[in-house]
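Problem: given the chain below (276 residues), write out its structure.
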Amino acid sequence: MAAEQHDDAVAPPEAEVNLAIHRPHSARIYDYFLDGTTNFPADREAAGHALAVFPQAPAAARANRAFMHRATRALAQSGVTQFLDIGTGIPTSPNLHEVAQRIEPRARIVYADNDPIVLTHAQALLRSSPEGRTAYVQADVRDPGALLDRVRATDVLDFSRPIALSLVALLHFVPDGAHEIAATLKGALSARGSALVISHFTPDYAPQYAAGIEKVYRDNGNPVRARPRHEFADFFTGWDLLDPGITSTPRWRPEPDTKPVTDAEASCLAAVAVRP
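Solution.
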């Protein structure tokens, strides 16, 4: 199906869209750190507070984005052709489907996010290769059952076949119940060879920054919980970690000749695992 035929692949929200640009949102703060343009004064003010306690935030955001690209390429090269990206954020090319479809043009991708402004930019996520397909759903990971229902309703992904679930820089925005949510999502991916891609803010590398970041995001209405390695590892229970296992975002299969980012600058754990 050609990209121009995918307008109906945007699942409509259940209520009138309220962009709430007077309140900061984590996706738009992240966009600011990536030098994007889809952010507003409230987001930039919150980002400024974050930079005051963690000046490395832009480097961390870039390292996280690069990890997503490498993990997606690795899975596409291994034969995975279906991807579910939750916590998509503001579209920034290359998006996940662009990375995957450069390797496998037939790849199918569903994006999900709870920020209404992402919905307004969703067409950028639907520029699929003619052989593949993409869709976007407005949904919140904190209600994984409803999210999965909306994903299934797009009829883009075949849940009887392997799906790679991307939860990149998302679960630290779920202070409570994140492991239960991950378990629900993993449970829906019943096909052997399904994959789980996670990156997560951690206090392990630079503990002096963690409390400050948690306070800044809590004060602006986007509570964050930094998790240490053992809590991060619990997300992958029952699945097989791919090499190099759990590490920092810049150390997961780094590419040669890339600008080095230290563990402290990244302050994020990363790993990819597959269902045995």
